[in-house]
Every structure is written in structure tokens, then in C-alpha cells.
Amino acid sequence: MSFLHGVEIVELNGGARPIETSSSSVIGLVGTAPIGPVNIPTVIAGSRKEAIEKFGGLGGDCSIPSALDSIFDQTGAVVVVINVLDPSMHSEEKPEADYKLVKGELILNDNYAYDVKITAADHPAEYVLGEDYHFDSASGLVTAIEGSPINTPETLKIAYTVVDPTKVSQDEIEGAVNQEGEYTGIQALMGAESVVHIAPRLLLAPGYTQIKSVTDSLIQVADKLRGIVIADGPGGTDSEAIDYRKSFDSARLYLVDPWVTVYDSKTKKESKKPASPYVAGVITKSDHERGFWWSPSNRPIRGISGTSRPIDFALGDKTARANLLNEQDVATIIRQDGYRLWGNHSCSSDPKWQFISVRRTADLINDALQRAHLWAIDRNINKTYIDDVTGSVNNYLRSLKAKGAIIDGNCWADPEMNTPAEIAAGRVYFDFDFTPPFPAEHITFRSSLVNDYLEEIFA
Fold first, then answer.
1. Where in the sequence of the chain do the CATH 3.40.50.11780 domains occur?
2. Under 8 Å between Cβ of 80 and 42
3. CB atoms within 10 A of CB 205
4. Mean pLDDT of the chain
5. 59 with 35: CB under 8 angstroms?
6. What's the average model confidence in pLDDT over 224-240?
């Protein structure tokens, strides 16, 4: 020890550490968009404007713009988007067609066109973008520049290329890890945290999860991310939805059927859309307002005009279609004071994990403990070390109890597991348990008709 004539301060780095729960409701969305990065995790942080700028607006058959709009109808949300549509592979060349300028403008038949070529019989060369005309890809609007010869001819010949989401294959949605170690499709969700520094928890691929292998791929990724999959059923009949559910056994799958209908005030028509983005938005809103430990069932769904087939429901009616679907672990949508998500069950055969909220609660506790104990790796194992770790976990469990996220829980180091041989090998074991809250799915009022209160008439 070196000599010191004075006062010395030594910082001790022991004691329990605070533990924080990771974000529970980051959405992982896989699909197609007319513009935007391809197979690169991209964050949209609750802004419709940002969503349109990065992945395009509504219109056409691409799934991502519609899904983001559906999510944001419910709440602001953080969405990690994986767009698999590559214009160099998934596009269609539109044959040359006749167009006419009206007050110096015309609109192409497709949004998000590119490689536009405009010619005319009385003009010797192709008109030049920026010199003869302006072009807005999102709307397909061509605007003639004043003084350009493009204003002269009555008829213009225009050819262009447009993205075609129907050319995206099932394999491209499911994704893979290529020889360069790059992730694509659904598999790209696994590497999302290393790119955007947040882990998606609510995984969906609207318009594709009625395909079993797509849903299986999402479940495999959800297992690794400690997330859940929100999948759409076939959207046909009740029996088709129930048969589809029987093809899975996973506590991480929340299956919703039927699809929804949405009214377009501009076209005055209803269109059919997958329900999963709306459900993801509902769960996110519930997490923000109440907490991840609450069931998403019996929460309002905004922005829809109905369901793709009628779902009858009455409180207490065991034969109602909604009840029959829920009994078979299929969540659905009912109309009761507006449209509501209805169903608590995962697609697990294990009663321990029948409630999707229980699976999510366990996931987020396990994830929080694992992430919070990086500091504990490679430290010397002694009594202070054991006390510090158990103290950290018990403090965290008490904070969850105070919030109502668990009924109670406890952490301890079992001497029978932590033998001298195990400790000498660098292995230390901590046990913890907890009891989550369970949703009140079935409420019974026991009614009795009695004469006991007649005496009060003359009291």
C-alpha cells in the first residue's frame, strides 16, 4: 500500500442493481411497400407522415402502407418494418398507352410508377424529366413545364414500370440468411435490434399469415425474441378458422379471425383487410395505458366498418359464434358498444400458457432479468455476489407487484444447486418464481329467487 497522509475515497461497486423492463409493444411488420429500403430493418416512430415518406401511401396492393395506417388508427406506435419488395425483381412494365394533357396535367393509371418514358408522334425525341415535365411518383401526376414542347401535342405516348407485389414469393416473405450473413424477410426481424437498437415483440405479416409456413416462420423468430405472433386466420368460414388453429401448438401465437372491412369515403366502397395490424395497434395502446400484463381482449378497435363475415355475440350465450371461436382459441371481433377485440387465448395446448397475457408477462420478466445482469458475468462468486443478485431480482419483483404486474414473486440461491463443484466450475444458479394476474374470462352471477324480503313491505 502506498503512503498517504490525508483522506482517501474508494468507490465500492457492490449492492443490488435496478432492473428495467424492456419495451413490450414494439411491432415487427413484414410485408411489401412500393418504395423504401429492402430487407433492412427501418423504424417508424408513430408518424403517418414518416410512414408515407419512407414506404409510400395508400393505394395499390402493397401491404405495409395499409398496415401502418391500420396501426396508427389505434395509437402511436414504434414499428420495425421489413419491406421485401425489390423493384428490380418485383415489377411490371406497362405497355405504351395514349394520354392527354388537361390544363397541362395528366395522371398515370398507377401510383409509384418509375422509368417513365414520354414521346409523341410530332416530337423527334423522348421528353426529358425536369426539362419538359415534372413527375410525382406517389400520385402518378405528370405536370408539363411551361414553355416546353410537351404542351403542344394532343396525344402523348407514355410507357412506364410499376412495382408488382404479386411477384413477391412466399419464400421471400419467410426470408433466409444468405451466404454473406444478411437476413431477409421474416428472418430480418432477428437482427433488427443490432440495426435499430430495439427488439420487436409483436410480430405480424398481414396478408400472408393465412399461409401456415409463414406463420411457422414468425413463431420461430418469436421464440428467439420472446415475442408473440399476431396472425390472421383464413377469413372464410368458422370451420376453416378452427381447422387452421388446430395446425399450431404455440403459446406465442394469437390467431384472429375473420378479417375486417373498411369503408373508403372517397370511393364509397368497402374493402376487406387483414385484422392483425389493427390488433397490434390495440395491444400497443393497451400496453401504454394499462401495462403488458393486461389481456388485449375487450378493447375497442377503431377505423373499421365491420367484419368480413357476421360474428354474432351476446353476453352469456354459449352458442354465439364469437364464443365458439374463442372456445377453440381463435380471437375474433364483436360489435358491442362499437367493434371490440374478443379473445384471451394463445394457441397452446398447455393450460399453463392458455392466456396470451401470461405468456407475455413471463417473457418480459425473463428478458428484463437476462438483460439486466450483464454486470454479473465474470464477477467473483462470494456471499456479497449472491446477495447482490438476489437483492436486484427481489427489488424488481417487488416493483412489479406494486404495479399490479404480478401477484408476488421471490428470488433465491438454492444451496443444493450451488455446490462447491459447481461454483468451482464457474457456474452459479438463482431460482425465482412469480404469479401473474389472470384475466376474468368467465364471470358467474348466481341468482336466487326468495321470499325473504317480503316482510320489508310492512316494516
1. 27-86+168-353
2. yes
3. 32
4. 92
5. no
6. 96
